From TrEMBL:
InterPro entries: Epimerase_deHydtase, NAD(P)-bd_dom_sf, NAD(P)-dependent_oxidoreduct. The lineage of its organism: Eukaryota, Fungi, Dikarya, Ascomycota, Pezizomycotina. One of its GO terms (cellular component) is cytoplasm. Residues 80-161 form the NAD-dependent epimerase/dehydratase domain. This is NAD-dependent epimerase/dehydratase domain-containing protein.
Amino acid sequence: DGQGEAADVVVQVANSDDEAMSLALLEGVAKHAGAAYVHVSGIATLIDQNFPLGQLDTRVYSDATQTAEILSLSHGHLHAAIEQKIVEQSEALQTKLAIVSLPVMYGEGRGRMTPQSKVFQPYVRAVLSHGKPFVVGDGQNIRSHAHVSDASSALLLMVDEALKGELSKGKWGRDGYYFVETGESSFMDDAKETAEVLQARGLVRSSEIDSLNKDTA
């Protein structure tokens, strides 16, 4: 927790599901008067693992009015358990906390560790291996997305707000849950755009979209 104690603001971007590291950083921040902890999570928290693959889930979550519901999701939801644990611990430690939930990322990052998207690039590689673009099921499931530069700007905004102290207009604690997105698209939309680009470059022969099931995806 020494690193957390030394900083005015800590942004945990390393691994959103590393509970030991996250709690250690939070405990360090708690020792620094007026410091804030920003935990970076992801919208996979909202995915219902029991919902049919490729179907459109019409539920929409708002970070303005439904933070209580988001922070009450079952632990079967990815990231949900650690998000709830961190909120509870921040309250116990009386420490300023915000959770920033990032969407599917695209664009080339400026850092050394992860310069490419962990979603789009693996999908393109899978398409090239399969021989043609594909979706799972009907591909109607919708995902929000953002360019990596926009996501980093959102995090910098949170840092700026944290440094304002009592003058901050940001929300913290159980109300300080933020989604980041610049748009949304269905799996089918993404597959069609991928098909057009790859076919134009001669990397796939057809722009036809395959529909795979859970076992063949």
